[in-house]
Amino acid sequence: MAEVDSPWRIDPVTLTGSLVELVPLAPEHHDGLVDAARDGEMWDRWYTSVPEPDGMRAEVDRRLSLAERGEMVPFTAVRRSDGAALGMTTYYALDPVVPRLEIGYTWNRQSAHGAGTNAESKLLLLTHAFDVLGCQCVGFRTQWQNRQSQEAIERLGARRDGVLRAYGRHRNGVLKDVVMYSVLAHEWPEVRAGLEHRLRHRR
Fold this sequence. Notes:
Helices cover 31% and strands 31% of the residues.
């Protein structure tokens, strides 16, 4: 068993589905991610962490720095039909002892919402986490105000664990409450079946 303070070095990997490909985040993805963020002005919602176009370079650098330290595994989501960047997602809160991780810091261009790419991205990430990395638990968290995100996580089949109040602050300084969800290893087959059904029917 890994030591508690041992970093969990998860190798960068490309995860490929029929609609979307998750590729290791790289500096050259910057322009495509700026275009994705401008689609619907995704940053203009105070309760989200979508970077503004002028801050995209710093956000890419931040995620890559965390990856270098073994604290995050960042991906760029790319639409397979045309190669357009859709957004970003990560593995983070890596705990090798359980083992456990969380999927988050996720955003996608607005025009892709409802197209099935987010559901397939989550299927790819969960499959790798449970079937390859051997996770016993995969967590999700979102802001209390972000009901759209809560509904999306619940549609994945994750169970709501509870709310952490005053867990941190939004970028405008307001205290934020965080809603926690998780999927356990024994629940994964049912969750996978539900996601596969959704994708077959593109819902």
